[in-house]
Amino acid sequence: MNNNGQAIHLKKEILIRLIKAFYTEDFEENTRLIPYDMRPTGAEVPYRCCIYKERAILKDRTIAGLGFQIEEDDERISLTTYAKKALERTEIDNKNLTVLQAACKGCVPSQIHVTELCQGCIARPCQQACKFGAITVKDGKSHIDGSKCKKCKMCLNACPYNAIVKITVPCEDACPVGAIEKDEQSLARIDFDKCINCGRCISACPFGAVHEKSQIIDILKALKSDKKVIALIAPSIAGQFPGNIYQLKTAIMKSGFDDVYEVAQGADITAQNEAKEFAERMESGESFMTTSCCAGYNQLIKKHLPEIKPYVSDTKTPLYYIAEHVKQLYPDAVTVFVSPCVAKRAEGFENENVNFVMSFEELGALFVAKKIEILNLEETPFEKESSKQGRNFGITGGVAQAVKKSSKDEQAVNSMILSGLNKDSIRKLKTYAKNGTCENGCNLIEVMCCDGGCISGNATLNNVKTASKLINQLTEKSDDIKRIK
Fold first, then answer.
1. pLDDT tens-digit readout, 234-255
2. Measured at the alpha carbon of residue 179, what is the angle toward residues 175 and 180, in degrees to the nearest 5?
3. Correct CATH for 111-167 of 3.40.50.300, 1.10.510.10, 3.40.630.10, 3.30.70.20
4. Tens digit of pLDDT for each residue in 453-474?
């Protein structure tokens, strides 16, 4: 879940205004007015130094909402022009994130810092703890030589007064693969060759400076066209909105979609195929297999962890199977995956059967803009019900449990859960790949990019506890997945 409080409210308000503007007779002009309508002359300036700074940042947020890269912005170009370009756009690019440079604070570099609390201890515990000779004592205070410091935090742990602290750059510290660095102006910059689209930087930045590039205008254009538009909803969506999933289907169709399919149906196929593949791998003498449904994990393998590839399941993701099924039924339809995270935008871009990706946040904004109250709607059933395990894919442990439940021999599956990709979990995967074996006799590793699973993706709306409870209420009424023969 993205915890950037006020930044999330600003993003949502802009999305709502963009959607409302789209359905007016003058989309371009009403888009141009968004920063001025949100911060009219004489209004309170809640966050920045002046109203002009506020409007500049709101303009950048609107540009990102229109689906453009802020780094490529020329401030002389008006929102009117961007709105027109969004309407004329026929293709989207694969850069899913952008940094709002006007919003970026330009945080001081990450460092170990001695504060004024330093007492100049005679024992010199910090100096003794440092193995790199980075600490000297001058005028009764400890000083750290940044050129020698390795940021090991040994001095920090040794100080009896807690006078030494680690100053972090939130977005850089959150990124598990070092894809964010500072540019020449000390502003955040994303290296897309390294980025795995995990979305951690979005959640971490306290200024909301890292932003998703929305595809909402492209989706609205599709909804307004004569084409059939079908929503593919992620399993984790059941924990995000009020009402039940059948009322949610009604709401989505009321917002303009022609039909709705559960990606949990694809999850059933993924689980059964992975169960077959797991059995085959174990029979051939392989030591372990990792699951493959997390888009962030797949990006990690591709860009940073090729050594683990031989141990990764070849089975396709739930989105792959359901999108393939829908395109077979309706070849000319526009498919929109409704997603909990930015990583799925990358998967959607690589899948020819997925036309667009819409986040839970964007769907919520669409409901607000169209005044759709889910709790007031009737239920619309799905043509095919998904299994309990398929609907549970978005919760940590759900994938492994589905594979186990699908297997001929459940006892043969000894699973491990890596919940949350970070430096430690990546180091573990590297070790498993190097040694060719997993610890404690584990032979199936479920890897989830987000801690807690998809229910804590950067575009989710509820906290993990609430989301889990709502999904459990749904799965209690669902049948178990069929065991492979």
1. 999 999 999 999 999 999 999 9
2. 80
3. 3.30.70.20
4. 999 999 999 999 999 999 999 9
